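Page 37, continued from 36.
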């Protein structure tokens, strides 16, 4: 039971995709991609965060696939995408470009939603031709562009060198997470979710995070530690919506507010009271609704007509 990579039942159990494929990135890295929903429907692309997998988006996939083509992929080293020695924001951008090219027709536009490291992936790819060609709109969910470790409130002391030092060692730990025990659930809830998160939400996130190989988790923690994508934010010229939980300890609301102020075309900033870092799981209807509204508002009518 402790080795399950996701919950097996309920709203957070991953739905069966309509089809699966492998996208090949610029350096040859192979990326597991799932496609859900009708082939000709308006497209949505989902990029998950650090130590997660496509299973993280189960609630959004389940709801949106009724009338959207939902494309979700495992970041390199996560889920069913093999690990790669290349861990960098450039690699993340390469991977997103590869997925867009493999799943979208020339000129086809989609809503791209990124959570945490997935949002950073979008920022890293901001100037890439594939993103500019295919992104009708973007949702940046519980993410930031720089100073992640210094701003984190996982360690409950005032900002400064001591907190940054402790946070860096906690988030960059090489220790295995081990089985999903009651203690592990409490720790994960404290660090990543709001105090009011239901047990089944915490269980769903724990199964996903604990399934991430510790070497992969550590390698990407080093990338996040040194993250500086402020320049990418300014290059996201399409409509972008920002969502954050008010109790997010990993990417606190200061990041969302900074993003909203720097984006050339921010169409909304939503702070969800009492919620933590795992907003797509903690507030599935809200996050799904944001994606659905962006799709109906910004995906060109020609694609909507083709799906009718």
């Amino acid at each position: 039971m402790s080795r399950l990579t996701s919950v097996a039942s309920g709203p957070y159990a991953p739905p069966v995709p309509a089809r699966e494929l492998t996208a090949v990135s610029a350096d040859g890295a192979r990326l597991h991609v799932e496609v859900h929903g009708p082939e000709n429907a308006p497209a949505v692309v989902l990029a998950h965060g650090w130590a997660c997998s496509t299973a993280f988006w189960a609630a959004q996939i389940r709801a949106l696939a009724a009338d959207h083509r939902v494309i979700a992929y495992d970041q390199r080293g996560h889920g069913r995408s093999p690990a790669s020695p290349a861990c960098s924001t450039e690699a993340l951008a390469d991977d997103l470009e590869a997925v867009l090219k493999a799943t979208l027709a020339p000129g086809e536009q989609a809503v791209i939603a990124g959570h945490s490291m997935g949002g950073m992936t979008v920022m890293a790819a901001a100037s890439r031709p594939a993103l500019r060609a295919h992104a009708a709109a973007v949702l940046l969910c519980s993410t930031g562009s720089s100073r992640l470790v210094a701003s984190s409130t996982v360690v409950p002391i005032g900002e400064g060198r001591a907190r940054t030092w402790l946070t860096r060692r906690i988030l960059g730990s090489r220790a295995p997470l081990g089985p999903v025990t009651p203690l592990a659930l409490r720790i994960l809830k404290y660090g990543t979710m709001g105090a009011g998160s239901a047990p089944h939400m915490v269980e769903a996130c724990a199964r996903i995070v604990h399934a991430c190989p510790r070497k992969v988790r550590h390698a990407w923690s080093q990338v996040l530690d040194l993250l500086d994508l402020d320049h990418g934010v300014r290059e996201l010229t399409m409509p972008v919506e920002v969502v954050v939980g008010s109790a997010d300890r990993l990417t606190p609301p200061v990041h969302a507010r900074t993003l909203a102020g720097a984006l050339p075309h921010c169409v909304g900033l939503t702070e969800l009271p009492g919620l933590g870092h795992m907003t797509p799981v903690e507030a599935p209807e809200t996050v799904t609704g944001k994606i659905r509204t962006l799709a109906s508002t910004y995906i060109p009518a020609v694609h909507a007509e083709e799906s009718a």
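The CA atoms of residues 92 and 103 lie 17 Å apart. Flag for discussion at group meeting. The chain has a mean pLDDT of 94.
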